Amino acid sequence: MLIVSAPMLQAQPLRIGVKGSYLHVQNVSTMPVLLGSTDCGRFQDGVSPGVQAGLTVDYPILGAFLEISGALVYQQRPAQLVTRTTDDYTVLDPRTTSYVFLEREHVFTSDLGYITAELGFRSQPFSWLPVYLRMSVDAGNPIVNATYQQTEEIVAPSGVLFADGTQRRVVGTGEFPGLGTSVGGYGGVGAVLDLTDRVQICPEIGYRYGLNSLTSRAQWQQSWWSAGVQMRFRLDGDDEEPAPEEVPPPPPAAVPEPEVVAEVSPPARLSAVRGRPLEIQQTVVTQTFPLLPYVFFDSASAAIPARYVRTVPGEAFSEAAIPKLTLPIYYAVLDILGSRMVRDSSIRLTVIGATDGRELSSSSDRMRLAGDRAAAVVHYLGSRWNIDARRCTVVPRNRPRFESNVDYAEGVEENRRVELVTSDAEALGPVVHRRFLEYVPVQPYQDLAVTVDDSLDVQSWEMVLTQPDGTPILNVPGRGRPPQQISINLDSTVTSALGPRLQDLDSLEATLTLRQSDGRSTQWTARFPIVKTTSTFEVSRLSLIVFEYDDASITGPNAVMMRTVISSAVSDGSRARVIGSTDRLGELEHNVELSEQRARSVEQLARQIASQLIFDDVRGVGPGSLQYDNALPEGRFYCRTVSLTITTPLR
Questions:
Q1: Which tens digit of pLDDT belongs to each residue from 508-555?
Q2: Is omega for the bond preceding 441 within 30 degrees of 0, making it cis?
Q3: Burial code of 243-282, b = ≥16 C-beta within 10 A, e = fewer?
Q4: What distance in Å separates the CA atoms of residue 393 and residue 374, rounded to the nearest whole number?
Q5: Structural class in CATH, domain 545-649
Q6: In the chain, what's the furthest Cα-to-Cα distance?
Q7: What span, in angstroms and rounded, lies between the C-alpha atoms of 25 and 222?
Q8: Mean predicted lDDT score pLDDT of the chain
Q9: Whole-angstrom Cα distance, residue 540 to residue 618?
Q10: Of 155, 326, 545, 583, which has the fewest beta carbons less than 10 angstroms from its beta carbon?
Q11: What CATH number has the domain spanning 6-234?
């Protein structure tokens, strides 16, 4: 069931634009070589390059979800059709002095110029994904150009000429007879790239299928693949700005106009530019953070790096207090393990120290270094968590059990590590944060217009954005006179801190301070709306990080973790996205294929666990989206992952 909110039914701003495309024209023809005759051969299909350009208009019916789309375009739609025929009569071959059949090549070319009207619809199904679909029909006539040229050339036997002494001659030219209205259907997909609040660039690819013949004299259809770009400009709608969409409950019918609450008279003014208000969406999230059971060491060193060492006292340590981010949780792996071993005295730990196989000059020195690294971990657990050393078994190795690729310097670095193996899978099980509120920016942009009298001698300026309680959240300084427009962009870090303090409809305050050469400073303040909406879905996230280098298999702990997460998260209406990725090491093509294999492995197991789960997206992106710093070994391991995101409608 589609629920349409009140703002979606209000008048929406029209978007006009221009577009241009390259056309890969496919001509499908059974046109006879000689019009009106069927016994002289027929032209074969052919492809030609073409172009189109024109004006567009899009009118939103349900916001970006559904728009009526139209265009008036000029299309250069060329054709080149070629066929060879062998005549029934013979000619003398001057090379062999024997009679052979005459073979000719016929070439038909045209450079048709159509004026075409298009009408259809455009839809962006998901507001969080800037991808849209377009479907349309078109009709056009060759108003600009309808000419053609047809030639024939003797191919064999060599040396034979036409009566006029030429090997190739023109047999027809002029306006092609019988051309009429060309009708087609189009389907395409594109992306939305916002340049400003009012201007968008939309690259698009698609396919147009010709529904009828171009001419009544023969069968000749034109279809094409197209790749191009559209630039759209939004025209302002009503004077009053509607509130953003929200389902359910609906937000207030309109967002208050930006208002100036302090000095607004010359010589300066600060005001919000009309447009969509800032919007933050509140979502209920359960996130599972798997632990990487490795501790990485510097070359030739057995000292635990500082990033793994906690400063908070052990008795004050809590998994729930760790920031809900992957690497901060991973860096607490020794304290997470230590606190769990304190709670469960039956847990036994095997600490496998390893070197990269090259660090020191001799094998015995490397084995000693490997043992020292493992002993350092045991000492940390003992001194900080009072873990009896007899519960830990130290195993030194020259190289790890699952070695990274030593052809890369990064792979050598990854092999300098300690591996943690426990008798109880729960001891190194994932950290799970359940049903916490996440605040993400949906519409993070707002522009502030600045007007300053030319008589003011401004040396520097500063714009400060504050929360409703007066807490500063953004500071933008500058030298000289301020620009005519200052842009605000809230990132997820700011919205995470800001979201819990906001009401559903609130405002932020921007203060501009100007400092003049005589030492005086003046301020102007403007308020503009910010809206907090509530997602109608609950999100469960899981990343499977225990993929070894160049491996796509799902290990036992990962399979157990998947069953736990999916069983608790999936219910009626649940949908899933599976995105596989790799680190930056290796060849790009191989990494993309590897990430695809990892994603498909997760999909296959997920379908076995929950057959009712609907998959919206399953793909591999290789190293195309590196979420973690690949200069660090742990960053590369956490990029060797498959991210599973499950969204379920809130009940």
A1: 888 888 888 888 888 888 887 888 888 888 999 888 765 666 778 887
A2: no
A3: bbbbeeeebeeebeebeeeeeeeeebbbbbbbbbbbbbbb
A4: 9
A5: alpha beta
A6: 107
A7: 7
A8: 85
A9: 16
A10: 155
A11: 2.40.160.20
Segments in 520-569 forming alpha helices (H): 556-569
Q: Where are the beta strands (DSSP E) in 94-219?
A: 98-123, 131-145, 147-156, 168-175, 182-191, 193-194, 199-210
CA-to-CA distance for 583 and 264, rounded, in angstroms? 54
- Specify the CATH class of 259-284+437-534 in words: mainly beta
pLDDT tens for each residue of 592-640? 999 999 899 999 999 999 999 999 999 999 888 788 889 999 999 998 8
pLDDT value at residue 9: 40
pLDDT at 14: 86
> Above 50 in pLDDT, residue 67?
yes
CA–CA distance, 605 with 563 (Å, rounded to integer): 9
- Contact in structure between 466 and 509 (CB atoms under 8 Å): yes
Which residues face 477 on adjacent strands? 462
State how far the Cα of 48 lies from the Cα of 74, in Å rounded to an integer: 17
Taking each helix axis from N to C terminus, what angle separates 363-385 and 333-343, rounded to the nearest 10 degrees? 60
State how beta strands 349-354 and 392-397 pair.
parallel
Q: How far apart are CA 410 and CA 101, in angstroms?
A: 70
State the Cα angle at 509 between 507 and 511, rounded to 5°: 170
Strands 392-397 and 294-296 come out as unpaired
Q: How far is CA 480 from CA 20, 452, 513, in A?
A: 41, 12, 12
Q: Is the pLDDT of residue 241 over 70?
A: no
End-to-end alpha-carbon separation of the chain, Å? 15
Distance separating alpha carbons of residues 11 and 197, to the nearest angstrom: 18
Radius of gyration from C-alpha coordinates of the chain:
35
> What's the pLDDT tens digit per position in 86-117?
876 677 777 777 778 888 888 889 989 999 99
Phi and psi at residue 421, to the nearest 5°: -125, 130
Domain boundaries, the chain: 6-234, 259-284+437-534, 291-429, 545-649
pLDDT at 118 over 90: yes
Residues 47 and 24: their CA atoms lie apart, in Å, by: 7
Distances (CA, A) of 279 to 131, 507, 649: 20, 11, 21
Pairing outcome for strands 575-580 and 521-544: unpaired
Those residues with Cβ within 8 angstroms of residue 81's Cβ, 6 or more apart along the chain or in another chain: 27, 29, 31, 43, 44, 45, 46, 107, 108, 109
According to CATH, what is the number of the domain 291-429? 3.30.1330.60
- What would the DSSP string read from start to end of 450-509? EEE-TT--EEEEEEEEE-TTS-EEEEEEEESSPPSEEEEE--HHHHHHHGGG--SEEEEE
For residues 142 and 114, the answer to whether their CB atoms sit within 8 Å is yes
pLDDT digits (tens, 9 = 90+) for 30-52: 888 877 666 677 887 889 999 99
pLDDT exceeds 70 at position 268? no
Residue 188 clears pLDDT 60, i.e. is over it = yes
Q: Supply the DSSP symbol for 275.
A: S
- For the chain, give the number of residues: 651
